[in-house]
Amino acid sequence: MSVDSPRIESISWGRMEVEGLSPGKDFKLYPGGGRPWDWRETGTEHDPGIQPADVEELLDHGATVVVLSRGMENRLRVDAATLQVLRDRDVVVHEAETTAAVRIYNELAGTEPVGGLFHSTC
After folding, report:
1. CA 26 to CA 111: how far, in whole Å?
2. DSSP SS3 for 56
3. Which fold is adopted by the domain 8-119?
4. Taking residues 41-60, what's their average pLDDT?
5. Please, which domain of life does this record's source organism belong to (predicted)?
6. How many CB atoms lie within 10 A of CB 104?
7. Cα distance between residue 45 and residue 92, in whole Å
8. What is the per-residue pLDDT for 110?
9. For FRET with 84, which of 48, 52, 78, 102 sits at 20 to 30 Å CA-CA?
């Protein structure tokens, strides 16, 4: 399995194209791959935001840097417990509006074991 994280090839409202994956709306990406991000799996909502369970899969795949996208309009929050989990594991965290998060993630992909959660709408 590759340690490189898949690059995000394009992002627009409601659609992302990721290297090696079918196009979709929201994604979990990590060293060696990724998959669609289904918020229903962990009960994620815009508020309180990204849950600790959302980042566990990234860490299980070896991510030591995590990029959390806040949505195109910064409406997706990050639960404080999620940030605590990442701090406790000494994970470097970047939080940003989605297009900025994609830039950060793509800069790190291939050079760092980076994972990310990407929300392509609000």
Report:
1. 23
2. helix
3. Hypothetical Protein Mth938; Chain: A, (3.40.1230)
4. 96
5. Bacteria
6. 17
7. 23
8. 83
9. 102
**Are the CB atoms for 56 and 28 separated by under 8 Å?**
no
**pLDDT tens per residue across span 82-110:** 999 999 999 999 999 999 999 999 999 98
Residue 37, token pair as written in the block: 């991000």
Token readout for 82 is: 């999620």
Q: By three-state DSSP, how is residue 55 classified?
A: helix
Q: Is the pLDDT of residue 1 over 50?
A: no
pLDDT in tens, 2-31: 579 999 999 999 999 999 999 999 999 999
Per the listing, tokens 């409601």 go with 14
Q: Side chain identity at 105, as an amino acid letter?
A: Y
Is residue 81 within 8 Å of residue 48, measured between CB atoms? Answer: no
User: What pLDDT, on a 0 to 100 scale, did the predictor assign at position 54?
Assistant: 97
d(Cα 105, Cα 110) in Å, to the nearest integer?
10
CA distance 51 to 65: 17
